[in-house]
Specification:
With 65 residues, this protein is an all-alpha fold. It has one domain. The chain is 62% helix and 0% strand. The protein has 2 helices and no strands. Helix 1 packs across helix 2. The chain is elongated, with a radius of gyration of 13 Å. The protein starts with a helix and ends in an 11-residue tail after the last helix.
């Protein structure tokens, strides 16, 4: 069980790192905007980079390849 928790911590930390640096507007509320669209594209690119560098494909479903 501890390995599962540590494994999930690694994945959660990767996700936080990916999204934090994506460039979403500070007041982002889910509304479409050019800035939010660019941030979404940035998240997709960061997910691809994460998958390639780590071999961890669990975030694959969150990205459009």
């Amino acid at each position: 069980m501890t390995d599962d928790i540590n494994d999930l911590d690694v994945l959660a930390n990767a996700w936080v790192s990916i999204v934090d640096g994506a460039g979403f507007p500070a007041d982002f509320d889910g509304t479409e905007s050019p800035e939010a669209h660019r941030a979404t594209l940035n998240v997709e690119e960061r997910i691809r980079d994460y998958i390639v560098s780590s071999g961890d494909t669990r975030l694959y479903g969150l990205s459009i390849f």
